[in-house]
Prior knowledge:
Radius of gyration: 15 Å
Strand content: 35-45%
Low-confidence stretches: none
Oligomer: single chain
Mean pLDDT: 94
Strand order of the largest sheet: 1-2-4-5-6-3
Number of helices: 2
Amino acid sequence: MMDNREIQNILPHRFPFLLVDRILELEPGVKAVGLKNVTINEHFFQGHFPDFPVMPGVLIVEAMAQVAGILAFKSGAKEGSSVFFMSIEKAKFRKPVVPGDQLRLELNVIQHRGNVWKCGGKTFVDGKLVSEAELTAMVTEGAKNG
């Protein structure tokens, strides 16, 4: 539905911090599903951890937030706006994410008022829930992404 080039037209993130490879589903104002292929070449595996590479949980939350940002922009947020984190709640990490895993990032809008979005996110690997969180962000017009 949306490839990496289209994602880069929406989000300001670039390597090594762009954590969404593809958007599979998008229903504006309702939900988005994204993919992230995790490879041994990810920069964070050099230090987290050399003998047992595990994707940091905070980066899984960031990947969820990037899918939520795409959802907000495709739901009417103005071009040139920025999305800023306001809170992360109920974050849980149930299983380590390791090289070779493919993250399926499912975000659903819980609440949207004005420029504030609250989304519930769940991340799956091979159909198994590996993490979840509730994310709240503010879309700010006039601020340049970056």
